[in-house]
Amino acid sequence: MSRSTLTLNLLTALTLATASFAHAADDAPAPATENAPNNVVVVGSPDTTTEKPVADAKAPASTDSQSWYSKAWNTAGQHLSDLWTKGDVEVYVPFWTYHLPFAYSPSQRSDYTEYPAGGGIGKGWYNQSGNWEGVYLMAFQDSHGKPMYMGGYGWIPTWNPINEKSRIGVGATVFMFMRSDINYYAPTPGILPMGSIGYGPIDVQVAYIPGGEGYGNVLFWWAKYSFK
User: In terms of CB atoms within 10 Å, which end of the chain has fewer, N or C?
Assistant: First the structure.
């Protein structure tokens, strides 16, 4: 089996926020009233004179009017920043690529690599809502026993069914991957549903690759350990 030396780079972009400047109109100075002679009656003293209110200038555009993709970019940048500064180092160990029997013949399944060698590293944490999110890089054997590279971001809403240390959840991952039989190691984007169950620092996670007869329909399993 030939070796391919490839590097998967994930770029994390930080968002630059633009500030809007508000221009306030200067108040008009109160008109001065000269002192009148004693024999002149002044109607309305300066103390009691009220100025006619000036119409409010039109308010400047609010930053809330920024486009939806700018808001999404800002939110993603904040999540990645929190994840990088507050997250724990995590180690990934792929251990099972299960080809669903209804989509593959016994002979096909026997030819595939179902227990892939490989590993990975990442950073993850449970955010203020109690949901797990993390970034990761993994390298492992694909179904044909050839090297596959994968890196991305995962988000899993999480519940604690028994106590605070027990976890179960369902979410999704977006990622880039490279493998020999898809564009010959050209970086390709993907998104998959994923689930997780764990206790303490250990989780077992799985992603489902949909497909049809003879392709896809795979459950990819890995273990994850968090260094608290």
Answer: C
Positions marked active-site: 99, 142-143
Per DSSP, the residues of the chain read: ------------PPPPPPPPPP-PPPPPPPPP-PPPPTTS--SS-TTT--PPPPPPPPPPPPGGGS-HHHHHHHHHHHHHHHHHHHPEEEEEEEEEEEE-GGGS-HHHHHHS--S--EEEEEEEEE-TTS-EEEEEEEEEE-TTS-EEEEEEEEEE-EE-SSSTTEEEEEEEEEEEEEBTTBGGG--EEEEEEEEEEEETTEEEEEEEE--BTTB--EEEEEEEEEE-
160-202 pLDDT, tens per residue? 999 989 999 999 999 999 999 998 999 999 999 999 999 999 9
Percent of the chain exceeding pLDDT 90 equals: 57
The model's confidence at residue 91, banded by pLDDT at 50, 70 and 90, is very high
Domains parsed from the chain with CATH numbers: 89-227 (2.40.160.20)
Residue 224, class by beta-carbon neighbours within 10 Å (0-12 exposed, 13-18 middle, 19+ buried)?
Answer: buried
What is the pLDDT, as a whole number, of residue 227? 93
